[in-house]
Amino acid sequence: ESSGVYSSSGSEACDIALTTLSELGPVITVKGAYHGKSGQYINKNRYDLLKYGREFEIPFPTGNDVMDRIRDLVNAGSTSIIVEPIQVESGIHSVYPDFFADLAKEFPNLIVCVDESYTGMGKTGKVFSYQLYSGALPDVVIVGKAIGGGLPLGITLFNHEIASKSKFLLSLRNGVYGSTSGNLLSLSLASVILDHVSDSSFLAEVSRKGKMIGDILEPISGKRLRGSGLICGIGFRSKSEATNFSDELVSSGIFATAMGDAIRISPPLNIENNVLKNAIEKIRELIEGL
Predict the structure, then answer these.
(1) Could you give the CA distance from residue 118 to residue 91 in angstroms, rounded to a whole number?
(2) 174 with 210, same domain?
(3) Which molecular-function annotations from GO does this UniProt entry contain (predicted)?
């Protein structure tokens, strides 16, 4: 059972999460994370760290050695952690396969918040990217971007225990954060989107298209291929190399933004097969020419 708070963007949805979690204690964050551009959460992304500082930050979880760092922070008073299952802005990095299972085993009382603003709504072949991982049962889920289908909407989902005890959440009238948050037009469209992206055949098609990208690029990209479904990337040796290749793609009529040391490949989920295939084959051709 969960309760939702409506807002106007993913950034505001992150604000709501941080305000709520900070009532309980310091929030553990992940190096390289991006959680929006507005007030509360500006200290939890790569731009600045104003509230708790880097003393409550962990390295990106590539292996279970990160559990030692989390243990130190829990012992120092941290009560929650916020994480992107696939960290997009830093270069399309996925947490290691057993990360959420290890969290649940090692720290059963730690509140787990996942930010799905980038990766939710079917982009990975699952409604939410955390569903790719065994043992992932988050207490808080942040949703933005695609949920509104182009209209302003963010949603922060809390489990019942948090929602029923948080003074901040209880102070909100009807679960709405702001004058136009949760407006009927945005919510009506979101309802249609959720029905569509929750359809198993639709999700299977996203996964199939993601596999096609992998099949075309894997022979020349090797371990540089990252992500899942239709949110994936190709890693380069440096940020500047990724940026230069992104510029080359634009000159060839393909828009693939540089994210950290990778280019992001994240086409519309309903992209036609031939359009996707032609674009990925062109990317492969350009990589082979490097």
Answers:
(1) 13
(2) no
(3) identical protein binding; pyridoxal phosphate binding; transaminase activity
Q: Are 132 and 245 within one domain?
A: no
Closest C-alpha among 177, 181, 179, 139 to residue 161: 139
CA–CA gap between residue 73 and residue 110 (Å, rounded)? 11
Is residue 183 domain-shared with residue 59, that is, in the same domain?
A: yes
For 251, residues 6+ apart whose C-beta sits below 8 A from its C-beta are none
The two structure tokens encoding residue 79: 């009560």
Note the pLDDT tens digit of each residue in 109-146. 999 999 999 999 999 999 999 999 999 999 999 999 99
The number of folded domains in the chain is: 2
Q: Are residues 59 and 192 in the same domain?
A: yes
Cβ-proximal residues to 284 (8 Å cutoff; 6+ apart), any chain: 216, 217, 220
Query: How does residue 54 score in pLDDT terms, banded at 50, 70 and 90?
Result: low
The torsion of the CA quartet 193, 198, 202, 203, rounded to 10 degrees, works out to 120
Give this prediction's pTM.
0.91
Q: Are residues 210 and 282 in the same domain?
A: yes
Q: Which residue has the higher pLDDT, 285 or 51?
A: 285
CA distance 191 to 258: 32
Give the integer Cα–Cα distance in Å for 235 and 252. 19
